[in-house]
TrEMBL record:
Subcellular location, record wording: Membrane
Keyword Transmembrane among UniProt keywords: yes
Record keywords: Membrane, Transmembrane, Transmembrane helix
The protein, known as: Transmembrane 4 L6 family member 1
Homology family: Belongs to the L6 tetraspanin family.
Gene source species: Phoxinus phoxinus (Eurasian minnow)
Residue ranges that the Swiss-Prot or TrEMBL entry lists as coiled coil: none
Entry membrane topology: Multi-pass membrane protein
Entry superkingdom: Eukaryota
GO cellular component: membrane
Spans through the membrane: 12-31, 46-70, 82-110, 153-175
Keyword Zinc annotated: no
Amino acid sequence: MCSLGFARSLGFALIPLATCCIVANVLLFFPDGKMIYIQEDHVSTYVWYFMGIGGGGFLVLIPACVFLGMGKCVDSCGTESCAMCGSVMAALVGLAGSGFCFLISALALLKGPYCFTKMGWESPFKDDRGQYLLARERWSVCTQPTSVVEWNVTLLSILLGLSALEFLICVLQLISGLVNAVCRPCCYKQEYSLNA
């Protein structure tokens, strides 16, 4: 029962993380808080991968719901090992989602924003392998949307941090679930043989 409480606490931790990932990804579609950029297709292509909405958001909400509902699963299927096997599968889904979110956010951060410069609409930092992140004086090359570099760097960094936490939580439950699914039946068999 201790492992069920641990899984439930991890489920509760995943819900706000997934929600924040969804919000951060949605905000990336509206640099400068305006809809005109999305209407004219002037947002980074990586935003359209929905890394925060799909990966770090809805795919992570699946394991969160499974972890929270494990007590009901034990009541219906009768064994904690069965519930733990289900939590392992759900943790793998969460790992895939958070890993996808982390990877795409990192690539988007390295490429930099899509913005208007003297040369027109482009990704001015796409070939400098993220060096623009350490050269803040170069950010002024983007004239529209206003403060788009700060906007992207902040939101993508948030997505990186949140998805890393989600990944860690899913790894913890994966390990806990595997240990409980594999070791508990063995322990019960040993107890039974000792009592017999």
